[in-house]
Amino acid sequence: MRDPIVSNADDGTQAPFADGDRLGELAFRREQAKAMGGSQAVERQHKANRLTIRERIEALVDQGSFREIGTLAGTGRYDENNRLVSVIPAPYVAGHARIDNRPIALGGEDFTVRGGTSFGSQRRKGGQGGFVEDLAFHYRIPLVNLIDGAGGSVTSLKRRGHSVFPGVDGFERSVELLGRVPVASAVLGTAAGGPAGRAILSHFSVMVRGSSQIFAAGPPVVERSLGQRIDKEQLGGAGVAVDTAGTIHNAADSEEDAFAQIRRFLSFMPSNVWELPPVVSSDDPLDRCEERLASIVPEKRTQAYNMQRLVRMVVDKDSEFEIRPTFGKAVITMLARLNGRPVGVVANNPMVYGGAMDADAARKQIHFMELCDTFHIPLVFFVDVPGFMVGRKAEVEGVLREGMRAVYAAGNLSVPTVTLVIRKCYGMAGMATCNKNDIDLKLAWPSAEWGSLPVEGGVAAAFRREISAAEDPAAKERELEAELRPYASPFRTAEAFAVEEIIDPRETRPVLSEFIELAEGRLRTTLGPRPRVGVQP
Amino acid sequence: MATTEVASEVTGSVWKVELEEGDHVDEGSVIMILESMKMEIPVEAPVAGKLVDVRVSPGESVEEDQVVCVIQS
Fold it and tell me: How far does the CA of residue B34 sit from the closest CA of chain A (Å)?
């Protein structure tokens, strides 16, 4: 149900409360706030297939849990006797509420009031250094940004009498929040400027495919600067911002879907870094051993298989929530649960270039590992990685640097980690799937193989002279490969206790669940913010 | 009736096409197999339905995100 729209149009009529009726005045001012930018502006918002900020809040949070703060902030208009006539509310609605009965701070631009541009109040309600950020920071509760605005407007220049130096209302608090409480942002309209910046300074971001756009600068600026004519969807729709650039993590089909994704994301998160992530009861049996796991990896080493399906067979039924499903697809990153405990799954995807790590996959894996590390969510790596992606395109994209940043990020992990090698684990990309600061637990399926590089290709490189000198070079190469292949058996590595255990694929769920449960004691004693370390390569 | 376009995840070539137009597919049915990075990469049906359009044939090159077939469900 939508709130009835009370007009706050400037029709010159006097406010409907008697002189001195303070409660009447409060009720009138609250009504004016609820009316937002007036019925015409609300209608325009609905016609654009977008909800108003107040409808968005109602759709996101537990029913009736929203407590607004700053309801009366706005611009009052008074008659010649200084009696209130109307109030245009501030273009930002903020407060606290509950999601799954846990408290959150939230706020968002009201596009129906001056297009959600920033508002020159004594104290900012939202945005950089706004009240809602302070609320999340000091009370250590998650922050949800409902973004629908383009930030500052030059119209404030004249009112203020001077221009504002960048960073006076800076991102310091937004940056601090990233190490303290979960921050989730939904881009629900066209975002540029400060609101766009805050969408990036989030642990999880989502936008609506078809009706949201985000960019550093919109079409008019692009045309003036570069002479390029491009519409806002082509410039910053989900096809660019989510699928191609990875600027925003997930796309949603509707605003309701975006809110559902935010609720889902937060369900895995603790309220802050001083707490453990919430454990739920699971009716999926801990000892469920999926028969199909025994045959899911094809015998033929060059045949790809569906890693998504494999992971889904292991984790609690329907518990998975994939982050960035359409970006950097060579790796799959998802939050899921094992026996009710949250885990972060990083799984290489053999369907996409054999799972080779490219720059986008590395960027995706880095963000996800840091997210889980910050909020004490143990990581499980399902490994099938032949190495870094090769070729000129990959090099142009900086695969080596991005890939090594993934290795660096893995080297800084403090959260407990289980590495499970499904098939291939080669080279430096393989190193990005282990955590030696933890117990360095490496499990493997019998289908596993590893090394600095695969025997094929490796033989051609190492024995180049010997092969080319042979009468039949191809036969020689095959002969050398056959000679070395038995040594690549994972069982030989297990003999040397260089991999800690080889498990029957069907036992994967119970084995992983037990380790995740074991890790809880350690997690409980290492809560708090993560220290900042070094310089990222 | 919904139509679902199925796109290739990779740049590569079509090795073999396993099903024909008109065939019924279940979610996860292998429609064709591509070859890329010396790997055989199955193209699986994301939804159940009827295969109504197969847009590539064996030997043909495919680009990342290219629609290779269409399912009606």
Answer: 10
- Is A309 close to B39, i.e. CB distance below 8 A? no
* Probe site for chain A from B18, B39, B43, B64 (most A CB atoms < 10 A): B39
Domains A51-70+90-267 and A291-448+499-524 share a fold: yes
Q: pLDDT at residue A88 above 80?
A: yes
Residue A99: burial class (beta carbons within 10 Å; 0-12, 13-18, 19+): buried
pTM over 0.95: no
Q: Are the C-beta atoms of A15 and A24 separated by less than 8 Å? A: no
Residue A4 has a pLDDT of: 41
pLDDT at A3: 42
pLDDT of the residue at A301: 87
Distance CA A364, CA A65 (A): 34
The overall longest dimension of chain A from CA atoms, in Å, is 107
CATH code for the structural domain at A51-70+90-267? 3.90.226.10
Query: How many CA atoms, within 13 angstroms, populate the side-chain half-sphere of residue A355?
Result: 31
Could you give the 3-state DSSP secondary structure of residue A372?
A: helix
What is the overall mean pLDDT for chain A?
92
Q: What share of chain A is helix, strand, coil (3-state, %, to 5)?
A: 40, 20, 45
Contact A451, A423 (CB under 8 A): no
> Hey, what CATH class is A291-448+499-524 in?
alpha beta
Amino acid at A102: R
* Predicted local confidence at residue A155, as pLDDT: 67
Nearest to A329 among B9, B36, B37 (CB): B9
What distances in angstroms separate CA A349 from CA A215, A356, A410, B18, B67, one per listed residue?
A: 29, 8, 19, 22, 20
Q: What class does CATH assign to B3-72? A: mainly beta
B63 has a chain A CB within 8 A of its CB: no
> A244 to chain B: nearest residue by CA?
B65
| Residue spans per domain, chain A | 51-70+90-267, 291-448+499-524, 453-488
A244 and B CB contact within 8 Å: no
